[in-house]
TrEMBL record:
Its EC number is 5.3.3.8. Belongs to the enoyl-CoA hydratase/isomerase family. It comes from the Eukaryota. The gene is Eci1. Pathway: Lipid metabolism; fatty acid beta-oxidation. GO terms for molecular function: delta(3)-delta(2)-enoyl-CoA isomerase activity. This is Enoyl-CoA delta isomerase 1, mitochondrial.
Amino acid sequence: MALAAARRLLLHAGSRLGRREAVDGARRFANKRVLVETEGPAVMKLRNPPVNSLSLECLTEFTISLEKLENDKSIRGVILTSECPGIFSAGLDLLEMYGRNPAHYAEYWKNVQELWLRLYTSNMILVSAINGASPAGGCLLALCCDYRVMADNPKYTIGLNESLLGIVAPFWFKDMYVNTIGHREAERALQLGTLFSPAEALKVGVVDEVVPEDQVHSKARSVMTKWLAIPDHSRQLTKNMMRKATADNLIKQREADIQNFTSFISKDSIQKSLHMYLEKLKQKKG
Ligand SMILES: CC/C=C/C=C/CC(=O)SCCNC(=O)CCNC(=O)[C@H](O)C(C)(C)COP(=O)(O)OP(=O)(O)OC[C@H]1O[C@@H](n2cnc3c(N)ncnc32)[C@H](O)[C@@H]1OP(=O)(O)O
């Protein structure tokens, strides 16, 4: 209930902000963690420093921004990128999955599902400009897109690394990985929790193109121009034909998936693994 109220408030505040900024000339709207520019090809920028982790608030704002774009019939495509230097997204927020209660885990997971369904089944053209590290849920965001352009910086890695955290990628993450890179590569990468360098990601098909870092946005825009030249109705029907079965697989078992996640993440052994992983992240800093 509280979340629904927050969501209504955000939508309202978001539309007021949108109107105000439009008067200033730039066509854009924003909430705290997501900035959307609608001048030229729409660009959605995640800005949840330090690492664009997908906290509950960030997920909610992301979903609301997407909803607003979907409702604007003049917007046919969106470039998804990040405003945090060197980070596309660190994925799901570990602090939403650690040390909380089952009701919180269930609420969080419902919102993860909702964002995924909205992104994956979007009628809009989605191009990701991956300008930084993109592990786990960050990779998931990119995989939802129709085309992925990644910056050629060996420090940036991408992949579903859940097994390194002692957790298991949900079946719908896995389905999308299989759809993108094939069963054998997905099986190996999921078991090993592989984080691919840009060159490896290109080779295996996790991304479609790798370009010098300063060209990632211009390349994403030129890709968008090419995709925008395709008639919407045929492209959308084709996208739906390709993605429907994967989305339906989750839709038909959303509640069971929430229950599974909640009981899995609540286990002492899993909480211990997450604790160790968080400690490792802290120690890395020295
Ligand atoms: C059934 C189970 C299903 C669950 C599915 C889960 C999918 C997921 O997405 S789980 C999340 C997986 N994400 C990761 O493994 C990424 C972990 N982070 C990193 O590897 C690095 O932080 C980095 C993204 C490569 C960025 O490195 P760097 O720039 O050096 O920053 P750090 O110093 O490491 O981090 C800064 C600060 O952010 C905290 N943090 C990092 N990632 C997360 C996260 N995903 N959630 C929450 N917080 C995160 C990190 O601990 C640091 O915090 P401090 O308090 O400043 O120490």
